[in-house]
Structures
1.
Amino acid sequence: MSKVLVIGGGAAGMMAAIAAADKGAEVVLIESNEKLGKKIYITGKGRCNFTNASDLEDVFDAVVSNKKFLYSSFYTFDNNAVMDFFEKEGMPYKIERGNRAFPVSDHSSDVIKTLQNAMKNRGVKVLLHTEVKEILVIDYTEDETKYISRVKGVITSQGDTIECDYVIMANGGNSYQTTGSDGRGYTLANKLGLKVTDVRPALVPLVTKEDYIPFLQGLSLKNVSVEIYKGKKKLYDDFGEMLFTHFGISGPIILSASSYVSKHLPGELQAYIDLKPALTRDQIDKRLLREFDENPNKQLKTIMPHILPNKMVQVFCDVAGVDDMLVAHDITREQREKIISTMKAFPMTIVDTRGFKEAIVTQGGISVKEVNPSTMECKTIKGLYLAGEVLDLDAVTGGFNLQIAWSTGYLAGTSIDNK
Ligand SMILES: Cc1cc2nc3c(=O)[nH]c(=O)nc-3n(C[C@H](O)[C@H](O)[C@H](O)COP(=O)(O)OP(=O)(O)OC[C@H]3O[C@@H](n4cnc5c(N)ncnc54)[C@H](O)[C@@H]3O)c2cc1C
C-alpha cells in the first residue's frame, strides 16, 4: 500500500486526502493549525459559497489565471461532481443568485464537518499543530545517464522525518495569513528549485487618491458600470454593484476588477463610473431639463437627489464643477453638459490595493509550468503533487476559487499510483 502525505488541511488538501484514500492508499494529512479548514470557515461571509452551478463553460470563464491548465481537473471533477460529493456525504445544498452553491444550513462549518467525516470514514490520519518544514527528495538513476528526482518524505516542525511514497502540497496562497496560508508553500517550492511567479493580492478592495472619495464612505451603488484605464488602454469594464469606503472602493465589481488590474499597482489607474449606464447623454439631458422645468426656483442641491443618491450630491456637484447652490432656471447648457459628463464618467484614480490582509485570493504562485495538468504531478520531481491556491491559479468570486481547490485536489489524490 502506498503512503501519501498531504500538506495542508484546507479545501484542496482535504479533498486530495479523500481522493487518495479512495484509491486505497494510506493517507496522513499534516496541518500546522490547531484545526482543519480555518479558511473555509470564513468563506462566503461564514456561509461558504462552495461552488457554482453554472455551465462548465461559464466556470472556465470565471478563471482569471491559467484557465487552460484546469481543463483536465475541471473535467475530472467538475462543479456537479462537487455538489454530488457533498450531498452524498450528507450535506444538502442550495443554489442562490448567480448560481452560487451554499450548504442549506448556511454554515461553512458544515462543509468542514463533511470533509472531516469523509476523511475519518476513509481512515485518513490527521496530524494537527504540525508544520512541514522540508520536503525530502532523492535523486536516483536507472541507467547512470539520467538522474531522476523523487520525493522520499518530509521533516516536520517536531523534527520528525516521515517517509512516504507521495507528497501532495496544498499549502494555500498568501492572503488572510491568520488562517495559515502565509506563503510557506512558496518557501518549500523554492527549496525544491520550483519556479514561483510574482504573487499579488487579488479580489481585494482598491485604494483611491482623491480626497472626495472618503466623503462617500458607506454609499453602495447598484446597476452602475465601471471602466478602468492605464493611460489610454482599457484594462477592465464591468456592470453591477460597488461600494465607497474610507480608503477607496470595494464591492462585487471592484473586487473582480482588482484581479485584472492588481498587476499594475501600486501606480496610477484612471477609473470612471457610469452612474446611469442605461441612459444616453441625450436621455439624461431630457431628464435634467424636465426636472429643471418642474422646479425652476429650486437649487441644484435639492433637485439632484431626484436623480442621484442624496449622499453623493455635494461631492458630485464639486467634481462636475457646478455650484450646487445654483437655481434651476440659471443653469446653462454648458453646466448641464458638465453634469451629464460627470454622470457618465465619475472619475477616480486608483493607486493601490489593500494588500494581502484583505485579499480573498492570491494571484500568482508556484508556476503551472512545473506541473502536469493531467495528473497534478510535478514535472521534475516524481511523487510530488500540487493542488489549490498554492499554484498560480485564481478566479473571480462566485464559488470558483473553491472549485479550483476541489478539482485540483481531487485530481492530485486520484492520480497517485497505489501499489
Ligand atoms: C474572506 C475569504 C472569503 C472567501 N470566500 C470564498 C467563497 O465563498 N467561495 C470560494 O470559492 N472561495 C472563497 N475564498 C477563497 C477560498 O477560500 C480559497 O481559494 C481556498 O480556500 C484555497 O484552498 P487551499 O486548500 O488551496 O488553501 P487554504 O485553504 O489556504 O489551505 C492551506 C492550508 O495549508 C496549511 N499549511 C500551509 N503550509 C503548511 C505547512 N508547511 N505545514 C502544514 N500546514 C501548512 C495552512 O495552515 C492552511 O490550513 C475566500 C477567501 C477568503 C480569504
2.
Amino acid sequence: MRTLQLADKTVPVIGQGTWHMGEDRHQRQAEVSALELGIDLGLTLIDTAEMYGEGGAEEVVGEAIAGKRDQVTLVSKVYPHNASRKGVAAACERSLQRLKTDFIDLYLLHWPGSYPLEETVEAFERLREAGKIGRWGVSNFDVSDMLELSAFASSSGCATNQVLYNPEERGVEYDLMPWMQNAAMPLMAYCPIGQAGKLLSNRAILEVAERHDATAAQISLAWVLRQDGVIAIPKAVDPHHLELNAAAGGIELSLDDERLIDTSWPAPQHKKRLAMV
Ligand SMILES: NC(=O)c1ccc[n+]([C@@H]2O[C@H](COP(=O)([O-])OP(=O)(O)OC[C@H]3O[C@@H](n4cnc5c(N)ncnc54)[C@H](OP(=O)(O)O)[C@@H]3O)[C@@H](O)[C@H]2O)c1
C-alpha cells in the first residue's frame, strides 16, 4: 500500500470511514470487528467525528483501537456549532473520552460555520500546545474558504481539507485540488465509492473493473488515488468489502482506463460549487 505524510505521520493512502457507525447497538460488534480487521489489513487511518451517531461512532472506534492506539492515526471532527474558543476545547475533551485516548492525531472543523475561523484556529492551536491533538485541519472548505484561512494561518498549519471526491463528483479537480497541491496539502477524499450508489453499476467503471479483474468499488478507489497527495477513506462493515478495499491500493489505472471513465464523467471545465453530502 502506498503511503503519504499526513499530520506528521506516515499513513496509508486508504483509511477507514465511520459515518453511520454507532447508530444501532445490534450492529456494534460487527462495526468494532470491521475496524479491527481493517487495522490488521493495514487501513490504520481511521476517520470519525463527534457528529457520527452523536458520539456513537467515536465509542465504536475507541473499542476497536483499545490496546493498539499506537498503530492507528486517528482523525476526528468538531461540529461548526461547537467551534468557539471554549466549545472546541470541550468538544475535544468529550471526543477523547469516547475514543478512550488522550490524543487525536488530526482534528478537523467539519464544515465552515458561523464562528470566526480565527477563533477556531486559535482553539485548535491551544489543543496542540496542550498535547491533546497532533495537527488540525478543515473539511468541506472550498477555495474561497481556504483563502480566508490562509490569510491568518500559515499553509503549514492546516494539515488537510477533507472533501467529497469520486468519479461522479470531480468538481474539485478544477481549482481546489490544484490549490491544495500547490500548498503541499494532502486531500482526504470522502465518499470515495459514492456511498455504494449508482457509481457501482456504471458501464465504464464496470468495463474497467473487468480489465483489472476487480470490482467497481475497487476501481472507484483506484481512480480517486490515481494522483499523489490524495487519501481515500471508504467506510466498510462487511469484512469482504474491507479486504477488497485494502487490495485496491495495488490497482493502477492506465490512461485508457481513465479516458473510458471520462466518457461517463468528464473532467470539469469550469468552476463548480463544492459538493457536499
Ligand atoms: N467530512 C465530511 O463531511 C464527510 C462526509 C461524508 C463522509 N465522510 C467520511 O468519509 C467516509 C466515507 O464516506 P461514506 O461512508 O459516506 O461513503 P463510502 O465510503 O463511499 O461508501 C460506504 C458504503 O459503501 C459500501 N462499501 C464499502 N466498501 C465496499 C466495497 N468494496 N464494495 C461494495 N460496497 C462497499 C459500504 O457497505 P458496508 O458498510 O456494508 O461494508 C457502505 O454502504 C465516511 O464514513 C466518513 O468517515 C466525511
